[in-house]
Design brief:
Layout: E1 6-12, E2 16-22, H1 26-38, E3 42-53, H2 59-67, E4 83-91, E5 94-97, E6 102-103, E7 116-120, E8 125-135, E9 146-162, E10 177-180, E11 195-198, H3 206-209, E12 213-230, H4 236-259
Parallel strand pairs: 9-10
Antiparallel strand pairs: 1-2, 2-12, 3-8, 4-6, 4-8, 5-7, 9-12, 10-11
Length: 260
């Protein structure tokens, strides 16, 4: 793993973020994505013991829904394979929500309270105990804390002249983030890297940003914009850091084995 990466957060929220990685190859970028999807473990309901289920759904169907309820996952306090017991007891008429699930461990609980599990009619009853296990996305997709992880080359936009006098202006759509090298917008023309601009600012249409201009759009070969969203098991920042740590550990292990 190289130490020459430059990482810059463009947008940062607790569950969703955009960040730029410079100095990476396509293989490394894809490795980061795969690590965020498959390597960082989360708690997910794995086994359900139904005490009573008089709803219109079979036990197996409710079990599948429960496996998709995101659970908070404090990774510093648990190891892969650890389990936590959860329970729910709801009597109809009512809708059973994820917030009705009670946990034996305060650190592990539903990340969202309003995930509907099932609507119970008058006289219907749902009661169960369940075990949530800590595992990774490599074991099962329900353990993927990164629910939306994608990347693309950073695209550099440069004004190369004025558009032809009689040239019709068609929409030129780019979504995400661009690096702007246009003199009329760039803050520092002499900088090695241009200014980063979120395309939402001009409705994703370059003709709004550069009316009447001819522009050149190129990929920056070693720069990648990541868009990451988590299910609430942990923050985006923790997901990214844990994924990078996983990649580093695997690289160190490979180096050690090759050297033997």
């Amino acid at each position: 793993m190289t130490n020459d990466f430059e990482v810059e957060f463009i947008e940062r929220g607790d569950r969703e973020a955009r960040f730029l990685v410079r100095g990476a190859t396509p293989a490394v970028a894809n490795g980061i994505r795969r690590a965020m999807v498959a390597d960082v473990p989360t708690f997910s309901i794995d086994t359900v013991r139904f005490v009573e289920n008089t709803s219109v759904m079979f036990d197996e169907m409710i079990g599948l829904r429960l496996g998709l309820v995101p659970l908070t996952t404090p990774l510093d306090d648990f190891e892969v394979g650890d389990t936590v017991t959860l329970a729910l007891d709801v009597q109809g008429p009512a809708t059973a929500y994820s917030g009705d699930i009670e946990s034996s461990e305060p650190l592990v609980e539903p990340a969202d309270e309003n995930v509907p599990i099932i609507e119970l009619k008058e006289g219907q009853h749902l009661q169960f105990e369940a075990d949530a296990v800590l595992d990774s996305g490599k074991a099962h997709a329900k353990h993927q804390g990164g629910v939306s992880v994608g990347y693309r080359h950073l695209q550099r936009v440069e004004v190369v002249g004025d558009a032809g006098e009689f040239e019709s202006e068609e929409p030129n759509i780019l979504r995400g983030v661009i690096e702007e090298a246009a003199a009329e917008h760039a803050a520092d023309e002499s900088a090695a890297n241009g200014d980063l601009v979120i395309t939402d600012e001009f409705d994703n249409d370059l003709t709004n940003r550069y009316p009447g201009k001819e522009i050149d759009v190129t990929d920056v070969s070693d720069a990648f914009v990541f868009h990451v969203e988590t299910d609430g098991s942990f923050s985006v920042e923790e997901l990214v850091l844990r994924a990078a740590e996983s990649l580093g550990d695997r690289a160190a292990e490979l180096e050690e084995k090759v050297a033997i």
